[in-house]
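Entry for the shared binder. Reason: the reviewer on the internal report wants the predicted structure included alongside the sequence.
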Amino acid sequence: MPSWVLWSAASAPVLLIGGWTLAAVRQPAGFDSTVDTISALAALDARDRWIMTGALSGVGVCHLVTAAGLHPASPLGRAVLALGGAATLGVAAFPLPADGGSSAAHTATAAVAFGALGAWPLLSSRRHPGVARGDRPTVPWGVRPPVAVAAGVGLLALVGWFGSTLASGERVGLAERVAAGAQALWPLVVALSVRRAARG
């Protein structure tokens, strides 16, 4: 695995969490991160919306770069990770309109992003080939079937929680941030497992 994969995988959660933290500070009094969504920080009427728009764009690019170089993960899993990255770019490109309105394009790209970034671990597992270590290949634990399935189920459960809060209107921002943050962190966990396997 190229060393730049670690940089891209590490940059995604830094950009996302740093972006929503800084953008929230810039909002008028009354903005509540446990209630208001990440998308509201990049909406057309958000204050300094470029912060969250730039962060989302950066996260999308990071996922695309990580998918390109995370070779120990299966090709299908990497393709779905790349789809999630592309959809994240779509979320940035199609912001919510002013005054709390909705947008079909934004909703569609966000749904694809959450779905793909939640599901890709389920499709990333490999029994072999692994990372060469001496005369014996070893499969990084981050792409071993039990770990990958558990991660995918966990991430999709968080997406389900977020979806339920959209229906109930309670703690939407909190649920979204937990789900999105976990999805941004998992590629880094996998990349670190690959590096560890390579080093033995």
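Summary line for the report: The helical segments are 3-25, 50-69, 75-93, 104-119, 145-168, 172-199.
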